[in-house]
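The methods section describes the discrete structure representation at length, but only in general terms. Each protein is reduced to its one-letter sequence and a matching series of backbone shape codes. I believe one specimen quoted in the main text would settle the matter. An entry of this sort, consisting of the sequence and the corresponding backbone structure tokens, reads as follows.
***
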Amino acid sequence: MIDAQDLVADNMLMFQRNYGGWPKHYKEEKINYNRVYSELEKATIVDESNRNDATIDNDATTKEIRYLLKTYQSTNNKKYLEAAERGIEYVLKAQYKNGGWPQFYPDLSSYRHEITYNDNAMMNVMNLLYDIIHHNNEMALVNAKFIPNADDAVKRGIECILKTQIKVNGHLTAWCAQYDEVNYEPAKARSYELPSLSGNESVGIVLFLMRLQNPTPEIKNAIKSAVAWFDKVRIVGYKYAEVPDTKLPKGYDRVLLKDSNSTVWARFYEIENNEPFFCGRDGIKKKNVADIEYERRTGYGWYGTWPKDLLEKEYPEWLAKNK
């Protein structure tokens, strides 16, 4: 079965950069691994293998590593294993000494150099490395030589997580979506992604911390403090929904509606007072999502139910084992 082929896996081999990582876009669009590319396109893609656009954003690189390992498991095609292990080498190399990961590597321009929890970028890497350490599922196929470095990377990543948990008036709260990698200060990314407490990204961080075996008192306190913050900032009696409106470009608007049976959380909260805020491409904070431009109002997840399962199921189960 050594010659078995898989369209998605073969496309992943083609898009892999020569230093091990993967980009997230091809011609400004999300890479479609299910597509059959023309010979000219294939040649162009291979010629671009030295571009410095590899990233851990939008599941890039970690997604490919996991898929290639699963496909190697079913096909025994060593090219898939070799590519996955080059990807692992890439994410280990991309980590800062302080434990954080930038959104892009080696391109550290603009906000790409910041420690990035946004869209679970760093947590996807840490979950991958944690699975390698513990031989979880297809990660057991990875060469054992990676385990010591993966273990060190996860330990440093945990230190970074604990250092970046924001303390307000002496109390630990949650995390910002991105941080300055030098001074650990909450940082701005895109114009509408300002320093804040994140009701979204903080969930992925807590879920990772709850995976850890024999958590230290500091880790337990980080988890309990974040959960207390989620409980404090919940917005009860509202839902975030799409409302049909044929007069608008997309045929709908996205609004916050009263609903006695629903609870939501804001994507961004003011660090000082936990007030939700919203921001358009002009970078100006607004207190109501209706006050930002239509394109951003409908093109970004300003509210969600991200902590719901954590609070109702996952945290109580963890707490029963880690009082």
Remarks:
- The chain has ten helices and 13 strands.
- The first strand starts at residue 25 and ends at 26.
- The mean pLDDT is 97.
